[in-house]
Each structure stands twice: as structure tokens, then as C-alpha cells.
Amino acid sequence: MDIGTVSESGxxxxxxxxxxxxxxxxxxxxxxxAVMPSQAGDGVWSGDxxxxxxxALHQLSTQVHAAATHVDEAIRDTRQALALLAGGSRAGGSRAGGxxxx
Amino acid sequence: xPGGLVPGGVMAGDIVIxxxxxxxxxxSELFEDxxxxxxxxAMLSDCHGQLISIDRLVGVAQLDAVAAxxxxxxxxxxxxxxxxxxxxxxxxxxxLHIALIASADAYGIGERVAxxxxxxxxxxxxxxxxxxxxxxxxxxxxxxxxxxxxxxxxIALLPPEKRAALFRALPEWLRRNSVVLTDPRVVQLVRLTVxxxxxxxxxxxxxxxxxxxxxxxxxxxxxxxxxxxxxxxGVARSRGMLAESAVSVMRSGATVPxxxxxxxxxxxxxxxxxxxxxxxxxxxxxxxxxRFEVYVGGTRDFSLETGSEPWDMTSNVNAVAGRxxxxxxxxxxAMADAGISSSSPVLFTGYSQGGLVAAELAASGDYDTxxxxxLGAPAAQVAVPSSIPWVALEHSxxxxxxxxxxxxSADPVLVRRELFDGRPVSTEVMFPAHQLAGYRETAALVDxxxxxxxxxxxxxxxxxxxxxxxxDSTLYRGMRETASAYPAxxxxx
Lengths: 102, 493
Prior knowledge:
heterodimer, A: mainly alpha, 0% strand, rod-shaped, B: 11-stranded mixed sheet, 17 helices, globular
């Protein structure tokens, strides 16, 4: 996805495009989570194989959930950055005060 | 089978799908999970690619250069974390998808090998039993054989009215024993027994076991279930039973407009159950050839003595023997009355004996067959060409399809389901797992399946009615006329 470069369109514009792109990724991840197989493993396996399959599905679900959480964080942070840029102030968003403690 | 797939022991309602040119055999749920995991992998890879693309164009160094807010940098870090999680998740989904497909393939191969092995062992056992039967009979089984032979001779010597009374009592016996007869292990035993009947006969004729094996079903197939059934027909005819006859067909009611068939369950619901045994739906299109869906019902009369009903045991046994039956001729007459010629596109649906007749019609090459859909049909030995899409529904606790033996050359998309899996077996009817109502229920489950073979076969069936501006339906009733000459074996049947 071409969202332009900072030098070409400015930080604000680049972050706007980043936000739109992240929204699309979040939507796609929501769809991905909806197609996850049932973690009950019904009708698929029995015995140890079923336990292993269910465990693998659980791990996969955790990974997808983690990805979705990180994308949500990125959206929130991008929105915050845009708000700060729009407000003309970087006091609240200084690197010392950033949410990651930079 | 701990730790593995259990298509024989899946939950009630589960369907197991195999065949159709693929070695994969598994539950519908497994194929559905595999499809979901494949879709999931594609979606996760796509998300990963998009995040990499975003991250590459708005990097930390660039943000640093323009002194962007720290939250912008935090977003970058979160995107990196998301990308890392997706880089792990997408291959995980791929591995699980591959594992499911590999397990279905492995199960399919294992099942095929097990079936061949069981048939091989049963055949050799049958051959040895036939070969040594006189010795065994003398040494070990005089009482058993005496009882058996005595019973057989006794039945044959009974006055006709008492023999008829005995046959009338048979349905009651079958009903009382429906729990045993609905056990999948008994069903499998029946399948193996009918498949090894030719080996048993070869042994009785003192043929070397290796020769019997070589010319039988397990070998080149010169003799097999059809030969065994022919012997049964020959013996029965000498007792005045299973004698074929001429048939006549009449329309049963007026031709009525109907909607086009659009699903497996819809077609199952159209199989006639009353007096009429055949239903023919005509799809008309201006300027085009009429197309026809032909529905053939199941056995109406379970008596071994030929009466007026062509859908009887006479047709059943003669059909398994590869002979032209009254039911077969009745359907061809109904088709001719409906205007079906060798160039008319036809889609056959048949239940039980009707499925066997439908498969034989499809295999005959006399019609432009576009599809075949059978429910509980003993049609495993019918050599339907692979070019004809064939979906076969069989309950693994239904003894009737097992009477048709094991699959020979045809490879239909085979959907299996254990109807009474753990549930109480009804003793209200003769073959509870063979009832059309149960197959209609299974057809609805098949409609809900997203498995590729099921979906593509249904799409081919449903395309059959494309462009039709009207559909009308006619019911036909076949009747036997007088007893006639013994029909000659059909080639390729």
C-alpha cells in the first residue's frame, strides 16, 4: 500500500494515511478472527491428537489476538499523534512522556 | 483409535467425506477447519504484508528527522510488534492446515489399505471354507450344517401358503433384530461376506485358492458379486422365486408445474415414496433441448416371490447380478414417455434400489447423463464412468448399501454418516438406518457442508437447470405383467 513518504507529504498527511491503512488492517484482522476454527475441535480429532490440535489452535488464536491488540495500539497512538499535531503542541506527546516511556 | 481421526466414531450428525478422485477422507468439520485455516493464513499474510508496507514508508528514522510526537513512534513500535505476531501466526495457520489435509490423506490411504486387506482376508477365508467345507462338515459342523440344510430344504418343501407365511414373518424378524442389523460392524461384515461369496463358490468347486483369488474381485474381477448373485438367481428361479417379468408403465396423475431443484435435500425430498416409483421433472428452455431430472424410488415389496410390483426383491437381486430388471425397464419406459432420448441431458437421483437403477442407467451409456445422486443405494459395483459427477450418501449403519459390496471401478464423492451413532435404534421399521427420512436429514447436513467436492458437485447439479423458463413434473407407476423369459445378462452392468 502506497501511503507516500514523510518528506513528500508531511508527517500529518503520512500519519493520516497510516491511520487509514491501519484501520483496514484492523478490519481484516477482525475478519481473520471470525474465520478461526472452533477451538473445541469437534468432529475433527479424538484423544491426544485432539488435545494437541486444540492447543495449537489456542496458540494460534493467542498470536492473532496479540497482533490485533498491537494494531489497535498503533491506531490509538497514531490518532494521538495526529491530535497532537493538529493541536500544535507536542508537550503531552514528548518523547519523555510517551506511552512507551521513551 | 486413540490419537487419530475417528470417522467411524464421530459425533452424531457428523458426515465423513471421501472419494471423488481424491484420497482424502475425513469429517466435514475437518475439511471445514482446513478451509478456514487456509483462508486465515492468507488473511494473516496479507495483514503482515500491509503492516510491513506501512512500516517501511513511515519509519522511525524519518519520524526522528521531523521530530514527530512520541506517540507516532509508539505507533511504529506497536506496528512492529503486530507484524512480529503475524509473522508467527501465518505459518502456524499454514502448518495446521497442512496437518489436517495430511491427516485426511493418511486416513484415506489407511482406510483403503484396510478395506483391501479385509476383503483379501475374507476372500481367502471364503475360498478355504468352500474348499474344505466337506471335511469341516464331516468333522466339525455336522450339526450346524444339518440344521442349516434342514432349514433350507424344509423351507423349499413347505407348501406355498406356509412358505409365504414364513416370508411374511421375515419383516417382523428384521424389525425385532434391527439393533443388531444396524451395527456398523455387522454392516461391514455383510459387505465382506457378499464380496467373498464368489471365493466361497470357487472353493466349493475345488478351484485352487490362488486361482480363485486371481480371477475374483481382489484380482482381475472375472467373477465377483454379480456372478454370486447370478447363482442365487438361478437357484431361486428353480424354486419359482426371483423370476423377472415384463412391465408396463402409466402416468400417475397430471403433469404439474414445479420449481427447479436447488440442493441435495431438495432432490432427496423429490424421491417418490407412494405408489408411483418414478418422478420425471422436465426443464424447458426456449430454443434449447429439454433437460430432465429423473427420480427413482426404493424397494416397495420385500417378498421373494414375484408379484405385480417391479420395485421388489426380484429386481434387487437381479440388478446385483447385472441383469436387466423390471424396475430398470419401467424407468426406461417412463423416460421414453417423457420424451427423453439418448441426446437429452439427464440428471439421475435414486434412493435404495432406485439408486442402483439410477447408477445402472448412468453407466449404460444410453443417455446423456450429467450427474448422479444416490441415497442408500447398493450400487458400489456399478461401473459409472468417472466423467459423470456422482455423489453417493451412505449410512455406515445401513445394511442395504453393504449388500452391493465394495466399490469396484467407480469413485463417487462418498458421504458417510452413522445415523444412530450412540442413539437408541428404532425397532418400528425394518431397516431403521435405511429410511428415506434419515437420508433426507443427512442430505440437509451435506447441504451445510463447505467441502470442495460437495460444493462443486452441487454446483454442477444446480447448473443443470440454468436458463430453464419452466419446470414440470410427472409421476409414473410401473407394474409387472405376466412372468416372462429369463432376461439375458447386460453387458457392462
